[in-house]
Specification:
- The complex is a heterodimer.
- Chain A is about 0% helix and about 50% strand.
- In chain A, strands 2, 4, 5, 9, 10 and 11 form a six-stranded mixed β-sheet that branches. Chain A has a five-stranded antiparallel β-sheet with strand order 1-3-8-7-6, with no helix packed on it.
- Chain B is mainly β.
- Helices cover about 0% and strands about 55% of the residues of chain B.
- Chain B has no helices and eleven strands.
- In chain B, strands 2, 4, 5, 6, 9, 10 and 11 form a seven-stranded mixed β-sheet that branches.
- In chain B, a hairpin with a 5-residue loop joins strand 9 and strand 10.
- The chains are: A mainly beta, B mainly beta.
- The interface between A and B is medium-sized, with 23 and 22 residues.
């Protein structure tokens, strides 16, 4: 089951904040966040393993609510380098390894 | 994390032909995955390739169309057979490995961009 991301696209000016959401109709064991810049490979940002746990990467953090089967990615004081497509990925069946199923992606554009 | 090399990086192919994409990893890995990314779309898993066993295909993908080889722990190939314009996509190889944080995550190759005319 593919996770659902929202919004589909976000346009920001440098220094503004954004939130990207990821939800699933099935129980989530973990949520992975990746960023793909145009023409490049997706790059791992962070993984959320426990309910309510927050992780950080630069000024990017994320939360994971197991009960609601949702994760949110928070981008604060955005920089031009944050532009790209953000994907959340999940693993089925409570496994901690193996294939990931990705959401449809959220395109983030940061303007000067 | 692993370093992945994919060849070719891009190609333009004629309808009805087949193309083989190579994926080389700089370390031994158990699980390798082949994803497809159609223009402006998400990453869709084609199959999981484990060394010493047949690849496991996801719903909607079949071995006759996307045969996969996994001869050793550092190499895999994906063939796109009898191509049609609908096969125009980026094909990405990825491997599972342990991140510095200790979590099991995926690392992707740069992808092979195929255009079918």
């Amino acid at each position: 089951q593919q996770p659902v991301q929202s919004p589909q696209a976000v346009i920001l000016r440098e220094g503004e904040d954004a939130v990207i959401n990821c939800s699933s109709s099935k129980a989530l064991y973990s949520v992975h966040w990746y960023r793909q810049k145009h023409g490049e490979a997706p790059v791992f940002l962070m993984i959320l393993l426990k309910g309510g746990e927050q992780k950080g990467h630069e000024k990017i953090s994320a939360s994971f609510n197991e009960k609601k089967q949702q994760s949110s990615l928070y981008l604060t004081a955005s920089q031009l380098s944050y532009s790209g497509t953000y994907f959340c990925g999940s693993r089925a069946g409570g496994t901690s390894y193996g294939k990931l199923t990705f959401g449809q992606g959220t395109i983030l554009t940061v303007h000067p | 994390s692993a370093v992945i090399s994919q060849k070719p990086s891009r190609d333009i192919c004629q309808r009805g032909t087949s193309l083989t994409i190579q994926c080389q990893v700089d370390s031994q890995v158990t699980m390798m995955f082949w994803y497809r990314q159609q223009p402006g779309q998400s990453l869709t898993l084609i199959a999981t390739a484990n060394q010493g066993s047949e690849a496991t295909y996801e719903s909607g993908f079949v071995i006759d169309k996307f045969p996969i080889s996994r001869p050793n722990l550092t190499f895999s190939t994906l063939t796109v057979s009898n191509m049609s314009p609908e096969d125009s996509s980026i094909y990405l190889c990825s491997v599972a490995g342990v991140h510095d944080s200790g979590a099991n995550v995926l690392t992707f190759g740069a992808g092979s961009r195929l255009t079918v005319l």
